[in-house]
Amino acid sequence: MFPRTRLHALFVVGLLFASAPAFAGDTASVTIKNFDYSPMNLAIAAGTTVTWKNLDGEIHTVVSVDGAFRSQALDQNDTFSFTFNKPGTYKYVCSIHPKMVATITVK
């Protein structure tokens, strides 16, 4: 059996890891709904795969401003995934509705 202080320390360490940022190989999600990306600003670790899902009844795209990635037209419930291996800031837009913009920051 662990002494009471040791159990407390293990609990605290568990909490720290439960709220830790994404690690390489992790996944993250972005929803497309009401002509918006959610979340609009996402911070992830290098190696994370992000999947976008279009929940709108309208077609949307996911296109990086710097040309790093580009989805096909996404109909309702379609998805697009991209793995971010290089740190940086990636701004993206819907090429059909250019007022839809968002950013992914890769650390």
Mean pLDDT: 85
How much helicity do the residues have? 10-25%
The SSE order reads HEEEEEEEE
Shape verdict: globular
Main-sheet strand order equals 2-1-4-6
Q: Into which percentage range does the β-strand content fall?
A: 35-45%
- CATH homologous superfamily (4th level) name: Cupredoxins -  blue copper proteins
| CATH hierarchy, class | Mainly Beta
As residue ranges, the low-confidence spans are: 5-22
Number of helices: 1
**Oligomer status:** single chain
Q: Structural class given helices, strands, pairing?
A: mainly beta
What fold name stands as the CATH topology? Immunoglobulin-like
Overall structural domain count: 1
Biggest β-sheet description:
4 strands, mixed
CATH-derived architecture: Sandwich
Please describe what this structure looks like:
The protein has 107 residues and is mainly β. It has one domain: Sandwich (Immunoglobulin-like). Helix content is 14%, strand content 36%. It has one helix and eight strands. The strands form two sheets. Strands 2-1-4-6 form a four-stranded mixed beta sheet, with no helix packed on it. Strands 3-8-7-5 form a four-stranded mixed beta sheet, with no helix packed on it. It starts with a helix and ends with a strand. The model is unreliable at 5-22 (pLDDT under 50).
Secondary-structure topology with pairs:
Layout: H1 4-18, E1 27-32, E2 37-38, E3 41-44, E4 48-54, E5 63-64, E6 79-84, E7 88-93, E8 101-106
Parallel strand pairs: 1-4, 3-8
Antiparallel strand pairs: 1-2, 4-6, 5-7, 7-8
